[in-house]
Amino acid sequence: MKLVTWNTQWCCGLDGVVSPQRIVDGARAMSDFDVLCLQEVAVNYPRLKGDASGDQPAQIAALLPGFEVFFAPAVDEWQHGSRRRFGNLIATRLPVAQVQHHVLPYPADDSVISMPRVCAVATVVDPHLGPVRIMTTHLEYYSKKQRMAQANAVRDLHAQYCDVAAMPPKPCNDGSAFDTKVHTMNAIVCGDFNFEPRDPEYLAVTHTFAHGRLWDCWHLMNGGRVHAPTFRLFDRTYGPDPVACDFVFVSDGLRAHVKKLAIDSDTKASDHQPVAVDVR
Asked: Where are the alpha helices (DSSP H) in 103-192?
C-alpha cells in the first residue's frame, strides 16, 4: 500500500494560487498512491487567501477517477445562509469496508483562537496486508491544552478499535446495521499533528497501551536521525525555524512492513510538505 499525506492549506500554494489540480499532481509525482490523505480541505471559503470558494472535495474527486473520496468536515457551519465546511479527506482506490469519522475533544481555552477538530477513518482492504484502518487528522495549532486532549483521543481511538478487533461483537447477518463489520488492529495514523517530536503530545500518541503502540515511520526508516522538517521551510509566518509536525504512524502489525518514507522538500504547492510511505 502506498499512501501520501499532506496538509494542503486549502490547496493554496505559496504563490497565493488555489489549485486542487496542483495538489493531486504533486502527490502523484511522489507516489502512485493507493491512499491519499489531505488536511485543510475547504468548501465555500471565499475570504481565505487565494479564494477557496469552490467545493474542493468534489474537485479532488473529479481529479481521481477510480477513487472513492470521503470528506470529514471538522467545521460545518452556515453564514448568511451559505454553508461552509473545512476538514480532512481520505481518497482511496482500494476496496473500502467501512468509514467512520470522530469528533475530537474541544476543551475550553479562551486564551487563543481555535476551531473544532476531527479524525477521519476509513478501513480499506489491501490485497496483501488485508484490512487496514486509515486514520487522518489535523490537531489544534494554537491551544496546547486542546492539542494534548486531541493527541490522547487519537491514541485512545486506535486502542478502542484494537479492543473491538480482539473481542468483536457477536456475528450478525440479518441485513441490518448490526451486520458484522470488518475489525482490524492494523492501522496507519497520519496527518498534521501540530506538535514536534520532542513535545509531550508526540509521546502521548506513541504511548504503549494494551495492544502495543503506534510507531513513527520516520524512525523506522531512519533510526535516531532528526526528523526532516515538513513545515515552515519557505514561509516563516508561523515561526522562525522549519519544524517536523506531519507524521505517519503505524501499528505493531505493520511495523515490519514499512519499506519507504519520503518527504517532498521542494514543493511550494502548500505551506506544508507532503509525506509518502510504502507499506508492503
From this structure: 144-166
Q: How many residues does the chain have?
A: 280
Do residues 136 and 116 lie in contact, with contact meaning Cβ atoms separated by under 8 Å?
Answer: no
Written as nine digits, the cell of 280 is 508492503
Cα 147 to chain center, whole Å? 15
d(C-alpha 132, C-alpha 139), whole Å:
22
Domain ranges of the chain: 2-279
Residue 81 CB-density burial (10 A; 0-12 exposed, 13-18 middle, 19+ buried): exposed
Residue carrying the nine cell digits 481518497: 91
The neighbouring-strand residues paired with 216 are 249
**Separation between Cα atoms, residue 90 and residue 93, nearest integer Å:** 10
Query: What is the tally of helices (H) and strands (E) in the chain?
Result: 5, 13
Q: Residue 80: pLDDT band by 50, 70, 90 thresholds? A: confident
Name residues whose C-beta falls within 8 Å of residue 39's C-beta, 6 or more positions apart in sequence. Answer: 5, 6, 7, 8, 87, 88, 89, 136, 137, 138, 191, 192
Q: What DSSP designation does 222 have?
A: H
Secondary structure of residue 241 in the 3-state scheme: coil
Contacts 24+ apart (CB under 8 A), 22-25: 22/269, 23/60, 23/269, 23/270, 24/60, 24/63, 24/64
* Residue 43 and residue 61 in contact, taking contact as beta carbons nearer than 8 Å: no
Residues 6 or more apart from 42 whose CB is under 8 A from it?
10, 11, 48, 52, 56, 84, 85, 86
Low-confidence winner among 92-96, 196-200, 233-237 (lowest mean pLDDT): 233-237
Q: Tell me the CATH number for domain 2-279.
A: 3.60.10.10
What's the whole-number average pLDDT of the chain? 98
Contact 41, 71 (CB under 8 A): yes
Strand partners, 18: 12
Give the whole-angstrom CA distance, residue 197 versus residue 186.
Answer: 23
